[in-house]
Specification:
Elements (H helix, E strand, L loop, with lengths): L8 H45 L3 E6 L4 E4 L2 H5 L10 H5 L10 H8 L3 E9 L2 E12 L8 E8 L1 H51 L5 H27 L12 E3 L1 H11 L1 H6 L3 E6 L7 E3 L1 H19 L3 E9 L3 E8 L29 H11 L3 E6 L5 E8 L5
Parallel strand pairs: 7-9
Antiparallel strand pairs: 1-2, 1-5, 3-4, 4-5, 6-8, 9-10, 10-12, 11-12
Helix pairs in contact: 5-6, 7-9, 9-10
């Protein structure tokens, strides 16, 4: 059937009205579409802003652990690396096969969110990461995927470790307060009898030869001086639980090293196969500190070095100046410290020594004393290559 041709003016006017109505409706729909696109673009920008505000690394993995997509945080953590198309264990861990107890595999197998905490090396530093793996709905092709979140919690773990350290120090303080009185009693007796011997030395001088008398005089003075220092050591045990106002003064760290080595000279002579080398900075600035406490730090570090090298080995003691700071280094070529034990060395009652060789408060005492002196102490070690302890203390201000 052929369409009728409009012949009257009314028919032509009706057709024009229909066209106008169609154009108006089309324009209205185009305007709605434009507004919808603007809303979609606004939503897209809003979602993108939310994603950009996420500080966790996000990655979408296939079921065979190939990275399909990452967010902007990846480029911040791993600059100049293209992850898409590579296995996650290759990118994140530098491995050729998947990790044991992989949270992404667990999430896919269990079909639920899986959380994990892992530690591995990034560059030159060990990082702590909190990992959350969440399975995604199957795609159109039926493939399974998992969304991986990684959050760097290294700083949180460091603060947590400092908090635990403070708690342990307080625990040791409670114990120290209980035993300090019992230790001071025998010390007072030893000190008293040593003073009595010192007073009687003048009567012995005409009766013994000069070299023997000088030895007795030196030994007696050393006993008296060390009894006083032991009294200070007992006093410093209380620094674990509360601040302590000690006798701070201007201290020559080189002299502290020399005095401590003098105390240990008989122990050094007993080990003929062990060597001790010193390299003390001749123009070392004086520092502000408690001399007896600093000698205790040096004594503990040297004692640990003696135990590390056993009967054969070398211990090096050196002092350095660096930008109004003084550094003491006690190094040995012993067996070294495993990587996983370094963070535990300064914990009270933690020890790697055999039963009867130590109770694990030497390094924790050093840590407390150095902290009280506004300094830092750290250890550097490689297994089988010895260890070195670095104590950095601020120089004394000009009077």
């Amino acid at each position: 059937m052929q369409a009728q041709t409009p012949t009257t003016l009314e028919d032509l006017i009706g057709i024009e009205h229909c066209k106008i109505g169609f154009y108006q409706e089309l324009q209205s729909k185009l305007e709605l579409l434009r507004q919808s696109n603007l809303e979609l673009e606004s939503k897209r920008k809003e979602i993108q802003a939310l994603l950009d505000g996420i500080t966790d690394l996000m990655a979408v993995l296939s079921e065979n652990l190939i990275i399909q997509r990452v967010n902007h945080v990846f480029a911040q953590w791993y600059p100049q690396m293209e992850p898409v198309g590579r296995h996650c264990y290759e990118v994140f861990r530098g491995r050729s096969q998947r990790c044991e107890e992989c949270p992404a595999i667990k999430a896919l197998d269990l079909d639920r969110v899986v959380k994990d905490l892992c530690i591995y090396k990034v560059g030159e530093e060990f990082k702590h990461y909190e990992v959350i793996a969440s399975p995604l709905k199957e795609g159109s092709a039926g493939e399974r995927r998992v969304l991986l979140f990684k959050r760097d919690v290294t700083l949180e773990k460091k603060f947590q470790a400092q908090f635990y350290q403070a708690e342990k120090m307080a625990t040791v303080g409670v114990l120290a307060a209980g035993v300090a009185h019992e230790i001071n009693n025998p010390l007072a007796a030893i000190h008293g009898f040593a003073q009595g011997l010192k007073r009687r030395l003048a009567r012995l001088e005409p009766q013994v030869e000069g070299e023997l008398f000088n030895d007795f005089q030196e030994y007696t003075e050393t006993i008296v001086k060390e009894c006083l220092r032991c009294h200070d050591i007992v006093r410093t045990l209380l620094t674990f639980s509360r601040p302590h106002s000690s006798g701070m003064g201007r201290v020559d760290l080189n002299q502290c090293v020399t005095d401590t080595l003098f105390i240990l000279k008989h122990r050094i002579k007993e080990r003929s196969g062990m060597g001790v080398q010193t390299s003390l900075c001749p123009d070392l600035p004086v520092i502000s500190g408690d001399e007896s406490q600093l000698k205790q730090v040096i004594l503990n570090l040297l004692t640990n070095a003696f135990d590390a090298v056993a009967d054969k080995g070398l211990i090096r003691i050196s002092t350095l100046e660096q930008k109004n700071k003084v550094e003491l280094i006690v190094a040995d070529n012993g067996s070294g410290i495993p990587e996983g034990l370094k963070e535990k060395l300064f914990e009270p009652f933690y020890t790697t020594k055999a039963v009867g060789k130590g109770i694990g408060i030497g390094l924790s005492t050093c840590y407390a004393i150095v902290q009280q002196h506004q300094g830092t102490i750290r250890v550097e070690s490689s297994l089988g290559k010895g260890a070195s302890f670095h104590v950095i203390l601020p120089g004394a201000q000009e009077p």
